[in-house]
Write a structure and sequence with these properties.
Strand content of chain B: 5-15%
CATH superfamily of the largest domain in chain B: P-loop containing nucleotide triphosphate hydrolases
Shape of chain A: globular
Structural class of chain B: alpha/beta
Number of helices of chain B: 26
Oligomer: heterodimer
Order of helices and strands of chain A: HHHHEEHHHHHHH
């Protein structure tokens, strides 16, 4: 393989990995810090994408529209938490069923409002050439944003008082409450933060994928696999599995088809879980959260 | 007798329902019968989830995906072979087999990977979505299997109807009305079969697995294999339903793998009640009626109805119609019944785990005694040989029943990551002896217990039972070799009847339904629980549940009995009786007790092993140890000469084990 070909392959690999991290982060925060399995996660991504689309249609610039989308999705997450999630605390099966219902409703509502036709947002920025290959500059955004958000999440959970309270509430809610932490409020904000991350994923992806009501289904299976295989240390785990599973998907996709790549991602995840049921980070340090 | 009459009632109900439905199918317009056929097919699909989720507690979101696999398999097989064989019944068989094989492959990874239930839900759902993507992408004439074009998002078309050929006759295709009759009868026969299976050991063990996997494997049931078996059977039923569906619409589309069909199966089952076979019929009719009634003329609001229904069930009915009724029973009616039957002192007290019961007034204690709550009697009966009654009654010997065995650990170490919870411990528990293991918090007691039971894999060393290496055997294999295990927190089947709890224990050992029933009845009487026999074990008082669990351990006829803090949360009187029981048990089996309560240890008067910081500290009798200054130091926390965090780390390992 030539040098430019190798660069192209590497660039594509890093992009796939980063996108997987992007779509998994929100789920990882909500599952890792709240033990909530949000089956409507894909629809939160869809929500962010449609919010971006709506804002750009209203004349807002793309970058501004993305910021608006993140805020709106976080606010929507807040509402969902208050109306639905908090009533199902510590009932994981019911939480899954309720968020699944929410997911069906959201897809159909988006379909009724926007229709099922692909709405394009033109991909911004130009392209750059490496040897014989031409690459989109926007891919740099697709790569940069997830890692920035992961770093931000790490800072928030490890270096702020709020993050400390969140981790305390996640590890032992009763003890945290006994020490005076308002665990309900912490839980609500955590969920909203996770929703905001999902919204960011939708916003950043909006210019490169078809913004359609069912777009969440494309990502939800992959992001769940990344988070579950990641294990209890949610941030390190999700970063690690996004890298491993994203690499599998990218390499297989290049050799065969993207669909086979997706299937191999699932197969790899299931095989890993067969031997490490606690996930990649589960065997080493139990109880650690970040 | 009861089960036989219940079977007759089931049969009568099914026969009447079948007659009425088939007759109705002949009377209504042909197109109506055609529509009803779909509902009958959906009932078959719902029944597969009743089996998997309701019976065995496997939270599968993938039944619709297996249904899709069955449908496509029918299509591929029928398109290729119907012309040659003149029939498509073999394609139906293929659909069922394909569903079973797919479920078995997926189930192997999920259950043998010990995935938790919530993860099973996610993996099955993710599998469905990936199948959706795969099948969606098979558009184009390149994707064909023989004569069958998969068709991608356009779907597979021209799938043959159900056709049969009698020997020597011409191929005959079922009319729509006949097809309705066939699907209805299959649904009813499957419902009957599930009801029947629910009363047989197969269904009762499934319920045991659903209620408490830990206890089931401790009794010797192979939880993973049973789950795989149930899931595979459920896959066969869903695959068969898929085959019918393909023949019904003569068309398969990848949307069968998408989220809505997956959700619908769950909703049918939830609305009708997931434990209820009849609920599958009720659920399909209610939900399909609602969504076609409220879904708008073109069905474009159907998903909203379905989604809202799901949210509503979860928020309003907490899991469905039948579970709601069940909860009303548990929370309002049953406590009243219990109180009336057993008197006020047996009301379950929240937080009674932590030894509050020890402070109970003397009148409560005497009341317990008056209730025939006699441990000494139980132990006495076992001593006099009636525990061996399993084999005399059943006429077949129970493996290792009542034969004391030697349990050894040699150089066992256990590390959790960088934390050493057990460090090179060697112990020998001789046959027909009781031994105590004590130690302060974090000494490694619970870890050692986990190593003995098979819940922890050792990092190094071996565990031997009668000289046989059992180091790598899981809990259920050890249970079959005669290891009886009583956990610290009472681990019984809370939702199952007390009698059923004991039956499951006895059946695990003898494998004979009638003998197990007799044995369960006898132990029930010995425990003084005959009056509570048909009440759920979860309604018993804390002490009673501890006793029930010990009774379950004894019902398996173990040769080694491991007890983790058997007197935790017991009153002084119950503790006293437990002491007597264990003292008597050692004439029948090897007994190993992990205990905290020094008074209990003193009374038991057995050799004591002291663990400290994951290592063997010292051994001796109670009198010797109570004069040992070093042991007192450990217990009183005096002069902790080893600085550093190691003790603390061992404590974390210990906490993990608990």
């Amino acid at each position: 393989m030539t040098a430019d070909g190798a660069f192209n392959a590497g660039f594509s690999l890093v992009t796939t990995v980063s996108v997987l991290l992007l779509v998994s982060l929100g789920l990882a925060v909500v599952f890792g810090l709240r033990r909530v399995i949000n089956l409507a996660h894909g629809e939160f991504i869809m929500f962010g994408a449609f919010a971006t689309l709506t804002a750009t249609r209203a004349g807002v610039g793309l970058w501004g529209a993305m910021l608006i989308a993140v805020t709106v999705t976080a606010a929507f997450g807040l509402v969902v938490e208050l109306a639905l999630i908090r009533h199902l605390y510590e009932r994981p099966a019911d939480t899954m069923l309720a968020t699944w219902g929410l997911s069906l409703v959201l897809v159909q509502l988006a379909d009724l409002v926007y229709g099922s036709v692909t709405e394009g947002i033109p991909t911004p920025l130009g392209s750059f050439g490496v040897g014989d290959y031409s690459m989109s500059e926007y891919n740099l955004v697709l790569i940069g944003v997830p890692w920035t958000l992961a770093g931000l999440t790490w800072l928030v959970t490890r270096r702020t008082r709020y993050g400390l309270l969140t981790r305390a509430a996640a590890q032992n809610p009763d003890m945290a409450a006994g020490l005076g932490v308002n665990t309900r409020r912490v839980a609500t904000w955590t969920f909203a933060y996770g929703a905001g991350l999902a919204g960011a994923a939708g916003a950043v992806l909006a210019p490169v994928v078809g913004v359609i009501p069912t777009m969440g289904q494309l990502y939800v299976a992959r992001s769940f696999m990344a988070v579950i295989v990641g294990g209890p240390a949610f941030l390190a785990g999700t970063v690690g599995t996004s890298t491993a599973l994203g690499a599998v998907e990218n390499l297989v996709s290049r050799s065969y088809t993207p669909v086979i790549g997706q299937a191999m991602l699932l197969v790899a995840a299931i095989v890993i879980l067969r031997f490490l049921p606690q996930g990649l980070t589960g065997g080493r340090r139990r109880g650690g959260l970040v | 007798m009861r089960t036989r009459s219940a079977g007759v009632v089931d049969l009568a109900v099914a026969a009447v329902a079948g007659g009425v439905l088939v007759l109705a199918g002949n009377l209504v317009a042909e197109f109506t019968a055609f529509e009803w056929t779909l509902w009958a097919i959906e009932v078959i699909l719902a029944l597969s989830l009743v089996l998997v989720w309701g019976y065995c507690g496997i939270f599968s979101f993938g039944q619709a995906a297996v249904y899709g696999i069955g449908g496509y398999s029918y299509g591929v097989f029928a398109l290729n072979l119907a012309e040659h064989t003149g029939e498509t019944l073999s394609a139906l068989v293929v659909a069922a087999v394909a569903g079973a094989v797919f479920a078995a492959a997926l189930g192997y990874f999920m259950f043998y990977g010990n995935l938790s239930n919530v993860y099973v839900a996610i993996v099955t759902l993710a599998t469905a979505l990936v199948l959706f993507a795969i099948v969606n992408s098979t558009a184009g004439s390149a994707y064909r299997i023989g004569d069958a074009v998969l068709g991608g998002y356009n779907g597979m078309t021209r799938i043959p109807r159900i056709t049969y050929r009698l020997p020597g006759g011409d191929p005959t295709t079922l009319t729509r009305v006949q097809f309705f009759a066939v699907c209805t009868c299959v649904a009813l026969v499957l419902a009957l079969a599930l009801r029947f299976a629910g009363r047989r050991p197969f269904g009762r063990i499934a319920a045991a697995v659903r209620e408490n996997e830990t206890r089931s494997s401790l009794l010797g049931y192979d939880v993973r294999r049973h789950k795989l078996l149930v899931f595979t059977l459920g896959g066969a039923i869903a695959g068969l339903a898929g085959g019918f569906y393909a023949a019904w619409g003569r068309f398969m589309s990848p949307t069968v793998f998408s989220l809505k069909p997956a959700a619908l199966v769950v909703i049918w089952t939830l609305v009708g009640g997931r434990f209820s076979v009849g609920g599958a019929f009720v659920g399909v009719v209610i939900v399909e009626g609602l969504s076609s009634g409220l879904g708008g003329p073109s069905g474009d609001r159907e998903a909203i109805v379905v989604g809202a229904l799901l949210i509503g069930i979860v928020l309003g009915l907490r899991g469905g119609v039948v579970p709601t009724l069940g909860r009303l029973w548990r929370e309002h009616l049953r406590p009243a019944v219990m109180a009336a039957r057993l008197g006020p002192s047996f009301r379950r007290q929240p937080g009674s785990m932590q030894g509050q019961d020890r402070l109970q007034p003397a009148d409560a204690v005497s009341e317990i005694r008056g209730d025939g709550w006699s441990a000494a009697q139980l132990g006495g009966d076992f001593e006099s040989g009636s525990a061996a009654g399993i084999d005399t009654d059943a006429g077949e010997p129970v493996e290792a029943a009542g034969a004391g065995a030697r349990l050894e650990v040699r150089g066992v170490s256990k590390r959790f990551g960088g934390v050493t919870a057990l460090d090179d411990v060697s112990l020998d528990f001789a046959p027909y002896q009781a031994s105590c293991i004590i130690g302060p918090n974090g000494a490694g007691k619970s870890t050692l217990f986990g190593v003995l039971t098979g819940y922890h894999q050792v990092t190094g060393g071996t565990v031997l039972l009668n000289g046989e290496d059992i180091t790598r055997l899981g809990p259920h294999r050890r249970a079959r070799l005669g290891l009886g295990i009583k956990m610290q927190v009472p681990s019984v089947y809370g939702a199952l009847a007390t009698r059923e709890n004991l039956w499951l224990a006895a059946y695990a050992a003898c494998g004979d339904r009638a003998a197990a029933r007799r044995h369960a009845g006898r132990i029930l009487a010995q425990l003084g629980l005959s009056e509570a026999a048909d009440l759920p074990a979860g309604a018993l008082a804390h002490g009673q549940r501890q006793w029930l669990e010990i009774g379950m351990v004894l019902a398996t006829g173990p040769s080694v009995i491991l007890l983790d803090e058997p007197t935790a949360g017991m009153t002084r009187d119950e503790t006293e009786q437990t002491t007597q029981l264990i003292a008597r048990l050692r004439s029948r089996a090897t007994v190993v007790v992990v205990e905290h309560d020094m008074e209990f240890v003193r009374r038991l008067d057995a050799p004591i092993t002291v663990l400290h910081m994951g290592g063997l500290f010292t051994q001796g009798s109670f009198d010797e140890l109570s004069r040992d200054e070093r042991v007192l130091n450990i217990y009183l926390g005096r002069g902790n000469e080893q600085p550093g965090g190691r003790g603390e780390h061992a404590g974390r390992g210990n906490a993990d084990a608990g």
